[in-house]
Design a protein that fits this description.
Shape: globular
Structural class: alpha/beta
Oligomer: single chain
Helix content: 25-40%
Largest sheet: 6 strands, mixed
CATH topology of the largest domain: TIM Barrel
Number of helices: 11
CATH superfamily of the largest domain: Metal-dependent hydrolases
Length: 430
């Protein structure tokens, strides 16, 4: 999360759309038939497209598949089928408004309700898998949210969760600028040295976290076109964190916007550098060789620029976005692996397909943006053999849109049909 105080108010809506929990997994086989199906390997559409689903898995994909006895056929008409979308950087426990005040004024119970609705909204927008990058003071509430989704009790994407992010005293997410006598807590867990890092990580893993998120840089500034951001942990401290996570088969992801923190993180072997506004040539080389993902998060920066409290603040945000876009083109040219992550939460959940549009605007083709979302997103979440493809044996996570996302990425803003694990959560309207 790129923290900003926007001063907006928010009203949590407690109504849940009828049928939002989704249908039960159909014990009978199902065939989804559509006019087209996205084949990312060829970068083309298959026309027509059919997918045979049994239980929660895909059995067969092609222009025509088996129609076993008792099969249920769902005709999606002129729509295009593709795998469920993946967002590798979300904040389910945040909503538009002043993030620092949310975590102070709103109880964990209230914020968990917010997160439950956010998970539903993201799923209904076609995002069937996500990586939640910090609960901002809600502790292990995301563990309960993830587990309730997995049990089918509430609707939401498949989740990889980090719990609270980890931060140094006085760092990027500390409560700076408040009355010191009030001892306002940070939105992250404190760790000021290697020993504390490992202790915090072990506690978070005990509570059920899937990976660790560390704030490595901030606060950011830009002067005369030059970007700067202080690092928080040394390369040696980050190496120790990566080693500790690896002990349990887990990973470390970092919030890191610029040098030298981004290079410290890359050398330490983190799984992703999130935000990655400006990377040096050497950092990009390391990330390419170690297959460390950059997760751009353009959509949040665009939102902050458009909703800044003052024109001057908006200009500063736009300057960072412009710098980021220029560097993103360099990252593509350098072969840095890119995964799609929007940083949704400080802007409305369910609207983050905008990130894919910006990735195309700033240098990718629609096919490359979809590959970053689906193929690289699945790898980053550790589900590369489970999701991100319409392939036999993979989870039956699918969406349908009207139009061709390989030529017009904006159609992903208007998802018409959502299936996750063989359950229909959003049915095509007649």
């Amino acid at each position: 999360m790129i923290s900003r105080n926007l001063g907006f108010s928010f009203l949590v809506t407690l109504s849940v759309a009828a049928g939002a929990v989704g249908q039960s997994v159909n014990p009978q086989p199902m065939v989804l038939h559509a006019a087209h199906l996205v084949d990312l390997e060829s970068g083309k559409l298959i026309s027509p497209g059919e997918v045979l689903v049994r239980g929660d898995r895909i059995v067969e994909v092609g222009t025509s598949v088996q129609h076993p006895a008792g099969v249920e056929i769902t005709d999606l008409g002129a729509c295009t089928l593709l795998p469920g979308l993946i967002d590798a950087h979300v904040h389910l426990f945040l909503h538009p408004g002043a993030e620092d005040f949310q975590t102070i004024r709103e109880s964990v119970a209230a914020r968990t309700i917010t997160a439950t609705l956010a998970a539903r909204d993201d799923l209904m927008a076609g995002f069937t898998a996500e990586r939640d990058m910090g609960t901002e003071g809600a502790g292990s509430a995301d563990t309960a949210l993830r587990d309730a989704i997995n049990r089918g009790e509430i609707p939401g994407p498949r989740l990889r969760i980090s719990g609270n992010a980890i931060n140094i005293l006085g760092g990027h997410e500390d409560a700076i600028g408040y009355n010191p006598a009030q001892h306002v807590l940070a939105n992250a867990d404190y760790a000021n040295n290697t020993q504390q890092l490992i202790e915090v990580m072990r506690e978070q893993f005990k509570q059920g976290s899937d990976f660790t998120k560390i704030y490595e840089t901030g606060q950011d500034s830009i002067h005369d076109g030059e970007f700067s951001t202080p690092y928080q942990y040394t390369e040696e401290e980050l190496r120790a964190a990566v080693k500790e996570a690896a002990r349990l088969g887990k990973h470390v992801a970092v919030h890191a916007t610029g040098e030298p923190g981004t290079q410290y993180a890359a050398r330490a072997g983190v799984v992703s550098v999130d935000h990655a506004f400006e990377l040096s040539d050497e950092t990009m080389r390391i990330m390419r060789e170690k297959h460390i993902f950059a997760v751009p998060t353009f959509a949040i920066q665009e939102y902050f620029a458009a909703h800044a409290a003052t024109p001057e603040a908006g200009q500063r945000e736009q300057a960072v976005l412009d710098l980021h876009a220029r560097n993103f083109r360099k990252q593509i040219a350098a072969g840095v692996p890119i995964a799609m992550g929007s940083d949704v939460g400080p802007f409305p959940h369910g609207t983050q397909a905008r990130e894919l549009e910006l990735m195309v605007k700033f240098g990718m083709t629609p096919a490359e943006a979809l590959e970053a979302d689906l193929i690289n997103g699945a790898k980053l979440l550790g589900w590369e053999d489970q999701i991100g493809k319409l392939k036999a044996g993979y989870a039956a996570d699918m969406i349908a849109v009207r139009g061709d996302p390989l030529s017009d990425i904006t159609v992903l803003q208007r998802v018409e049909f959502v299936m996750k694990g063989g359950r229909v959560y959003r049915a095509l309207k007649p």
